[in-house]
Design goal:
The structure is a single chain. By secondary structure, the chain is of the alpha+beta class. It has one helix and four strands; from the N terminus they run ββαββ. The two termini are about 25 Å apart.
Length: about 90
């Protein structure tokens, strides 16, 4: 799921609300070609070695927030990735 400002309308996209809860935020920096690597690091390296516990009752795996820092394939591009978690231990 991608998240953009709710006042922006894009043809072919549906609006949906994201439920409140606890999330841990990660940043992907760099081109979109590298986002798969960032997501792998989040789920296979960082979270297993941290005290964060993924919320297994979540309605989405994670969401990505695209804002003014997103620059597609440029090295200065930034995307926030929010993963739903249970309370931090």
């Amino acid at each position: 799921m991608a998240a953009i400002s709710s006042d922006i309308k894009i043809d072919g996209f549906e609006n949906e609300s994201i439920h409140s809860g606890n999330y841990v935020c990660f940043q992907h920096k760099g081109s979109m070609a590298l986002i798969k690597s960032t997501i792998y690091q989040i789920y296979k390296q960082f979270i297993p070695l941290s005290d964060f516990v993924i919320n297994t009752n979540r309605t989405l795996i994670h969401y990505e927030r695209y804002d003014y820092r997103f620059n597609w394939n440029k090295t200065n591009s930034v995307i926030d990735i929010f993963v739903p978690i249970k309370h931090n231990l």
